[in-house]
Amino acid sequence: MMAIQWSPMIANMQITALPLGLWTPVLEYLPGGTMVRVTAWGMWSCSPQLACGPDGHRASFISAENCLSKDALVGALICKVGGGTADVKGTILPVGSQLVFSVPDSGGSLFMTINDEIEGFDDNSGALTVNVDVRPKDAPARGA
Predict the structure, then answer these.
(1) Which one, of 39, 43, 38, 37, lies nearest residue 56 by Cα?
(2) Which 3 state secondary structure label does DSSP give 122?
């Protein structure tokens, strides 16, 4: 079995539940095909009644259907590759406490935020801490 050789890119970055736009910029550019590993921990809230960790809240009065990502629990950490801080363009992925993914071929900036309704961000509070590691597309694996 081959182990992945990860290169640390971001250590202990705070992702606030109340960003200036919809998304917090994390990395300016990731080339297509890059493998990315995100790990997250801490507590934040998408309403005064819904404190949760990066995996989100299982029993929410907010519907995930109305949130930035329909594929993640309300309050979960989500990321996107591409687009900007104020839009929902790009590829949006649920992160939770850990995610490994391959950057789409077009590449792009990496952003993170809380999965909430766009009009619901004003009562958010707290922050999560994230680490981001990468493995370039053509980097060799090492023997395990």
Answers:
(1) 43
(2) helix
The predicted model scores a pTM of: 0.93
Domains with residue ranges and CATH for the chain: 13-137 (2.60.120.430)
Instruction: Name the amino acid, one letter, at 7.
Output: S
Would you put residue 21 in left (φ > 0), alpha (ψ -120 to 50) or beta? Answer: beta
Number of other residues whose CB lies within 10 A of the CB of residue 12? 8
Phi/psi at 139 (nearest 5 deg)? Answer: -70, 135
Q: What is the pLDDT of residues 24-62, one digit of tens each?
A: 999 999 999 999 999 999 999 998 888 999 999 988 878
Contact (CB, 8 A) for 129 and 38: no
